[in-house]
Each structure stands twice: as structure tokens, then as C-alpha cells.
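pls design
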């Protein structure tokens, strides 16, 4: 055997032995490269500026205090982002990278969850479906909020749950406890996800299908998370009385399901079909919950369905003024949706060869290639259209203001945005602390401001808010300031004291 033949054989063996690991890593890596390539295009948006408002230019204690009083999320991502913004260079792309890393690992983790539950091929399908999800890219990877880590920790929750049920041991229960804690400490919908999973286990304990020891990881995680909840309960109760989302209708219910399916036609068909399949199994009493494949399918159908229905009832009928029906809050359910969709999609691919008679391998390869191509093309197209569409141009607007020739010669300058978190914009205005901020103040509508002490005011109208009267605001200041548009824009104005 010559040297080339030996190398060829070793390569084939390597590909055969590690095709699963290579496939899910390739799906994650291609997704990551795509995200990173376009991440500088679109500025951060309103919620991300809020995140900067919480963590930037504050001590660690001040940050936690502000979060307790204003935000409705647990502290874990605030801590991660507090550290991140202080160690990476300035720029939108660097901030987004924190979440893009979480998405990268989420795609790998969901692949392993699929492999544990169903098999290697189903795991690869799960990774491909998640990697081609526009929801995952745009609202997890391109967000400087908790959602990338909600996706990652929810994927870990599912993986460790499956492993814990396959092989209950101290190690698997410990890993499951860590996953429960991480998710519950990142988002309250994540906490609700863990609670529903615990309810499912309670049913299994009542049916004597599971030992009461199954509750130990939940109890241990709750002991760590509940102190924060009790400190946060005042803010949460205030938000519960009056929160910004509209009460949902049945159309918004369907839109949210489509959102969770990654805005993918394939996943949007496969997921409901998967739920129907689980219902048929249960109704015909063929659902053997002791079987890990069936157990996983039941969980992935049960948990998203029940959570969506409960939140819908609460937001539409029980407390519409305090509705919490926000699409991105349901990102915690995406791993469950993706895994059930992967299993259903794979079953459909197995059925296709029968349609094409004796060309099993050709039919499977061709159809799989076509479907993956269509999913990828749709994802890329929608993502690019979105990031090049209308955007809140915090970064570009900050550069435009700070490039004004007399910015440092105008006396006291106020940079005012119509957001409630105007101070968060100081990251862009100061370029991460690189620019001289002498005599320049950054503020928003919630700050107490004596406008009369400023010689020049820049007003940036961002994130249209019905409760902020921009024209009234400018007219009120017109008695003391002359006003002109900056660069012909209709959202940026300069006011100079008369």
C-alpha cells in the first residue's frame, strides 16, 4: 500500500468515525462565520441600549441595584455583559460577539441532544435547522441582551435532561442541576420552562414512572435563584400591573409559533406535524414514556404547547394590561421546537424513498440537499434584508454628532435622546471611553435636566414612542433655542441658544 492510499484510508476512517461531530461543528461554524461577517452592519437597538444603560459606567453594585429597580430579568447575563464590555475593544460587532458565541455552542448542543434522544442523523438535522433559523441569528446572535444565552442554557437543559433520564447518576443529575440554575438565573421565562419541566416530572412520579429523587436538581437550583426573585419581586409586581406589550390575539399566537420555528417553512410544517404525531401516540396508548425517544418527543410537544397556552390565557384574558406576550421571551422554547421538528423532518425524509420507489439513496440525498439549500437561502436572504433595512442608528448618529466641527467649542453640550435609557448611549457617544467628553452630557427623557444651562443641545428621536411628543418638546425649547435639522435628517436636530 502506497503512502497516498494510506492517507486516503485514514481520512475515510476519520470521516466515518467523526461524521457527527464534524457535521454539527460545521453547521455551527458556518452560522458563526455568517453572523460575524454581517454583525457590524446593523447598530444595536433600543433594548440593547438599555442593556448598556444597566452595565456601562457603573460599579458592579450600582449595576445590580439598577437592574433590581428597572429590569425584569435575573442577573446572570447582566454579570456576563458587565465583564464583557470591559474586556473587548469598542464596537457593535464586539458587543454582539458575546451572544454569537452562545449561538455557536447552542447549535452544537442541540445536535448532541438530538443524538442522545434519537440518533446521530437526527442530531445533525437539529443542528442544521437551528443554524438556518433567522430568529436565532437576528434575535439571539445579533442581540446584546440575554436571549443568546437563554437559547444556549435551554439547549443545555434539554441535553442534560435527556442524559439524566437515560442514565440517572450523580454526574448527570449535577449537570442537569447546573443547567436548571443557569437558565433560571438568565430569564424568568427560562425559570418558567424549568417549572413546567418539573411539573412533567411530577406527573411521572405520580404515575410511578420516576423516583422522587428527580426533584433534587430543581430544589437545589431553586435555593440559589429564589433569593434574587424575592429581592426583585417589587419590580416584577409593578410591571405585572402595567407592561408595554398588547394583549395577544389568535393571529399573534400563530405569528409567535412561526417565530419560534425560526421563520422557516420547513420547521413550521414539521413542528405541528410532530405534535399531531405525539397526540396520536398518546391517544392510541402506544406512547411508552420509558422509551427515551418517545419521552423526548412528548416533552418537546408538551412543554412549548402548554407554556404558550398558559401565557396566552394570562396575557389575553387574566391580565391584558400586564401582558407578557413578547415573541423573544419564548426563545427559551426554541430548542424543544427544533428537536421535535428535526425528528419529524427526518421521518419525512425516510418516507420519501418509498415515493421514488427503488432510488432510496438518490432520493434521500437529493431531497435533503434541496431542503437544506432552500432553508439556508431563505435564512441568508431574510437576514440580509433585515440588517440592511430600517434601523435605529445609535452608532452612526453618535459618530455624526461627535464629528461636528465645533462640538468641543459650543460650550456646554447636551446629547439628548428620546429614549428612557439615554445614558446607555454614552458608550457610542464616548466611543467606549476613547473620546474626550469634557463639557458633553448624555441624557434621556427620564433624566432630570435643566436645559437652560446648555449652550447646544442635540436631540435624537429614536425608537418611536407615542408617549413622547417630539414636536411639543422642540416647540417648548424654541423660545430659548434656534433649531435646525442635522444633515437633513428628520430624526436628529441641533438646538443653539439664542
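designed seq:
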Amino acid at each position: 500500500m502506497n503512502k497516498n492510499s494510506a492517507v486516503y484510508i485514514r481520512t475515510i476512517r476519520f470521516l466515518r468515525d467523526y461524521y457527527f461531530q464534524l457535521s454539527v461543528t460545521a453547521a455551527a461554524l458556518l452560522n458563526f462565520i455568517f453572523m460575524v461577517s454581517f454583525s457590524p452592519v446593523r447598530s444595536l437597538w433600543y433594548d440593547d441600549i438599555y442593556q448598556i444603560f444597566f452595565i456601562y459606567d457603573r460599579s458592579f453594585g450600582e449595576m445590580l441595584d439598577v437592574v433590581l429597580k428597572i429590569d425584569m430579568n435575573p442577573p446572570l447575563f447582566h454579570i456576563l455583559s458587565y465583564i464583557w464590555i470591559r474586556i473587548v475593544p469598542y464596537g457593535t460587532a464586539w458587543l454582539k460577539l458575546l451572544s454569537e458565541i452562545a449561538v455557536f455552542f447552542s447549535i452544537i448542543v442541540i445536535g448532541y441532544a438530538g443524538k442522545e434522544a434519537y440518533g446521530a442523523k437526527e442530531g445533525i438535522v437539529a443542528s442544521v435547522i437551528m443554524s438556518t433559523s433567522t430568529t436565532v441569528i437576528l434575535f439571539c446572535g445579533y442581540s446584546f441582551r440575554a436571549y443568546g444565552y437563554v437559547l444556549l442554557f435551554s439547549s443545555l437543559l434539554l441535553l442534560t435532561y435527556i442524559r439524566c433520564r437515560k442514565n440517572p447518576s450523580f454526574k448527570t443529575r449535577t449537570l442537569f442541576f447546573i443547567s436548571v440554575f443557569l437558565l433560571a438565573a438568565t430569564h424568568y421565562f427560562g425559570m418558567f420552562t424549568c417549572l413546567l419541566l418539573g411539573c412533567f416530572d411530577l406527573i411521572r412520579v405520580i404515575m410511578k414512572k420516576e423516583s422522587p429523587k428527580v426533584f433534587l436538581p430543581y430544589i437545589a437550583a431553586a435555593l440559589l435563584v429564589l433569593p434574587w426573585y424575592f429581592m426583585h419581586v417589587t419590580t416584577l409586581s409593578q410591571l405585572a400591573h402595567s407592561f408595554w406589550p398588547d394583549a395577544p390575539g389568535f393571529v399573534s399566537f400563530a405569528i409567535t409559533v412561526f417565530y419560534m420555528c425560526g421563520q422557516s417553512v420547513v420547521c413550521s410544517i414539521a413542528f405541528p406535524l410532530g405534535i399531531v404525531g405525539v397526540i396520536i401516540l398518546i391517544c392510541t396508548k402506544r406512547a411508552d414514556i420509558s422509551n427515551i425517544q418517545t419521552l423526548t418527543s412528548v416533552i418537546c410537544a408538551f412543554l412549548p404547547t402548554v407554556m404558550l397556552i398558559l401565557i396566552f390565557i394570562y396575557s389575553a384574558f387574566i391580565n391584558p394590561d400586564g401582558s407578557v406576550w413578547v415573541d423573544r421571551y419564548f426563545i427559551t422554547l426554541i430548542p424543544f421546537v427544533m428537536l421535535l421538528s428535526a425528528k419529524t423532518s427526518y421521518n419525512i425524509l425516510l418516507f420519501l424513498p418509498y415515493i421514488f420507489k427503488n432510488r432510496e439513496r438518490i432520493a434521500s440525498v437529493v431531497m435533503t440537499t434541496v431542503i437544506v439549500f432552500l432553508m439556508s437561502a431563505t435564512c441568508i436572504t431574510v437576514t440580509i434584508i433585515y440588517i440592511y433595512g430600517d434601523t435605529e442608528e445609535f452608532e452612526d448618529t453618535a459618530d455624526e454628532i461627535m464629528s461636528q466641527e465645533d462640538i468641543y467649542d459650543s460650550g456646554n453640550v447636551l446629547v439628548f435622546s428620546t429614549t428612557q435609557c439615554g445614558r446607555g448611549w454614552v458608550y457610542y457617544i464616548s466611543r467606549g471611553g476613547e473620546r474626550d467628553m469634557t463639557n458633553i452630557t448624555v441624557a434621556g427623557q427620564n433624566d432630570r435636566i435643566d436645559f437652560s444651562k446648555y449652550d447646544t443641545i442635540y436631540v435624537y428621536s429614536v425608537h418611536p414612542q407615542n408617549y413622547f411628543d417630539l414636536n411639543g418638546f422642540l416647540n417648548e425649547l424654541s423660545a430659548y433655542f434656534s433649531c435646525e435639522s442635522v444633515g437633513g435628517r428628520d430624526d436628529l436636530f441641533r438646538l443653539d441658544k439664542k
